[in-house]
Design brief:
Elements: E1 4-6, E2 12-14, H1 19-29, H2 35-48, H3 52-58, H4 63-78
Helix pairs in contact: 1-2, 1-4, 2-4, 3-4
Amino acid sequence: MSDVQRNRQGKAVITEISRSELLHLMYEWMIGPNAERDRAILARRLFDGITYERLAEEFDLSVRHTKKIVYDAENKIFRHIPK
């Protein structure tokens, strides 16, 4: 079972979910024209802990756009994690 909570800043925090479960959810719920890029950004952020600034450079995006991609992606997949 998984446990998704929100910290004081409203950020989703996963306390129990495997990497493979999270990847499965990413491929299932993150679809569309930029899905591959968005999955790569989210994976680098969640699994590797890469900063938004570094991700923005890596993917040639603004920091603001990078944060929006991560926020939107988290909201898409975290709402589908069974509690």
